[in-house]
Amino acid sequence: MSGHSKWATIKRHKAVVDQKRGVMYAKMSREIIIATKLGGSDPNGNFRLRQAIDRAKAEGVPNDNIQRAIEKGSGAGALDNFEELVYEGYGPGGVAVLVKCTTDNRNRTAGDVRMYFSKFGGNMGDSGCVGWMFKERGEVLLEKGAQFDEDALLTAALDAGAEDLDTSMEAEALVICSPDQLEKVRDGLAKAGYKVSSAENAMIPSTVVEIDSAETARLLLRLIDSLENHDDVQSVFANFEMDQNWMQEFLN
Known about the structure:
Number of strands: 10
CATH class of the largest domain: Alpha Beta
Largest sheet: 4 strands, antiparallel
CATH superfamily of the largest domain: YebC, transcriptional regulation domain
Structural class: alpha+beta
Distance between the termini: 22 Å
CATH topology of the largest domain: Alpha-Beta Plaits
Helix content: 40-55%
Order of helices and strands: HHHHEEHEEHEEHEEHEEH
Radius of gyration: 18 Å
Number of domains: 3
CATH architecture of the largest domain: 2-Layer Sandwich
Shape: globular
Oligomer: single chain
Strand order of the largest sheet: 3-1-2-9
């Protein structure tokens, strides 16, 4: 797994901080609105919406919030003019950073993202400056469970259309597939009896930067954490590796 994937895993298993809950609710609502606008309000026929609802429920978003977001996306409520944007740049240590956003004010979002890059020792670049270093892939995260059998999971994953399997994490297994097979693989594994924690497309770097300085690690992780906690930012991807102890130490 890339360094940022490990960072995301560590964050997910930390206790939820109350003051950040509202930010997460806003992010989930925006994703539901966009998914509904693009594919309709029926999650059975709109995989992106189904993903967004599943993630929102996993984050504890109330059903009323989810329903209101679907209504906004379908035009039944007051509809904000959200658009999806990607910002790119370099963080401390020359780490490539991709920032995916959903915003109703691109000038505000661009200014805030640029400010975070500058504040933590990086710089935001032009479109395409680091995007070429990343390739999209599908990732399905499963709970291993007490009776985990790697060979059985590999067989089920391949039958569902997956390409690879990573079992290096203690409590979870990562099934890897092409982006266009994500829905098929996710549903196939669920039908096979596996508990799916998440299913989403991620941007995976072709090369990684090894962080060997605690100060660089601190600045980089604060940059990523600040970006991820911004209302407009949906996801952040970066091409680094570092000591996991630093990830634990510098996680706010």
